[in-house]
Design a protein that fits this description.
This protein is 62% helix and 5% strand. It has 126 residues and is mainly α.
Length: 126
């Protein structure tokens, strides 16, 4: 089996190990192109395990930094998410619906999704 990049195959060392075990029971070797690793050799198996551990470590560090950045932004009040676009256009949606336009036509005219139009129109029943 040929894979171009390791991160496209597995997200953790445990997941990688289970994939390798399954391939091994079927008599299939794994080759990762961009790393030049081939699991048909003992050296290839060792390299894959080492590189898998490093890849998992990098991913966990990236997620940790991301969480820290989000926490800092929230503390500064800068992390608020995107502005609600469809809710701001609720009055326009209802007016266009009153004119008899379909949900698809309203969505196309206002540049929003049909689901957003549906939510805005069903909100008037509440």
């Amino acid at each position: 089996m040929v894979v171009t990049k390791l991160d496209r195959l597995a997200r953790s060392v445990t997941h990688l190990g289970s994939i390798l075990l399954e391939l091994e029971t079927k008599g299939v070797a794994l080759r990762i192109e961009n790393l030049g690793v081939d699991t048909s050799t003992p050296t290839g198996k060792l390299m894959l395990n080492v590189l898998g551990g490093v890849a998992q470590f990098e991913r966990e560090m990236m997620l940790e930094r991301q969480c820290e950045g989000i926490a800092k932004a929230k503390a500064k009040g800068a992390y608020k998410g995107r502005k609600p676009t469809a809710r701001a256009k609720s009055a326009e949606i209802k007016a266009l619906a009153a004119e008899g336009l379909s949900m698809a036509a309203i969505a196309a005219r206002l540049g929003i999704g049909k689901g957003s139009v549906h939510r805005a129109l069903s909100a008037k029943a509440e």
